[in-house]
User: Fold this.
Amino acid sequence: MSHQPDPPRLRAGSPLVDVPPAPSRCRAVKTDGAQCELTTALSAEGFCLWHDPLRTPEAQAARARGNLQGNASPTRGKAGSYRTVPDAEMPPLEDMDHAVAASAWVFRMTGNGTIDPVTSRELNRSIGTFKDALSKRDLLRRIRELERQLKAYATARR
Assistant:
């Protein structure tokens, strides 16, 4: 008796039949002859931010801000160089609502190619750490309050 699951049966209208197509890639061909692998923020003409001749000023501005996606990977980047977002562009991060808004901001900026995936990952880690710290702080406050109440009840019982 086999312990392997039966192969899926394909039926018309089944989610297995309606597989979405692979995401479109940038149409640009790099100097080494390989096609650009970026799939996000493609223009109507099919070019990513970095290869779209109509978005050259936008790409130059992103590079000037330090968003060097495609030009400085973690393996070939210069030691000590950091990709950053100017403070004025960063959303505030003071409470849980701000954390949700910051997560949405990172999602949008990554999706449109303004920040690279490495920067996005680090920003998301920082937002997660912030949310965890808020939760722990609030939990400790609740514990202290419950301990205070318990002590008051114990004192009143004596």
About this structure: Residues 85-158 form one domain. The chain has two domains: 11-71, 85-158.
